[in-house]
Amino acid sequence: MGEYLLLAGAVLLIILGIVGCLLPVLPGPPLSFGGLLLLHFSKFAEFSRETLIILAIIAAVVTILDYIVPIWGTRKFGGSKYGARGATVGLIIGLFLGPAGIIIGPFAGAFVGELIYRDDVNYALKAGFGSLLGFMMGVGLKLVASFIITFYFIKGFF
After folding, report:
1. Distance CA 63, CA 2 (A)
2. Residue 46 in contact with residue 151, Cβ under 8 Å?
């Protein structure tokens, strides 16, 4: 019975990890890695120490980069923290609008955030694009890491 609870928890963490790549309040790759660890400690799969270490490093590095890359994108295009925060708010609102909202939301949020910071449409467009680009790069990195972990999860289970 305990093994099946570990398996259920592992599957739940893998799913939450992938969802967490899109939701800024959930740490996607660490949750995915937690699911892999639960599967490792169950009777359903076993992973080598090297595999676990490499995947843990990937999850940690991507989580750290997720904080750095959006700031880099914003700064590279001359934006402010208002744009970065606006992109996050835009994403949360965009989640309720479907797949298009996930793309449009962060850009619109960054644009509005930069307009609040500085009343210049050209500046807001440029900085908003930078915030969006950095944000999307962070999401992409997290998705890649979580899908790599999910691949090992599925491979180990079957």
Report:
1. 30
2. no
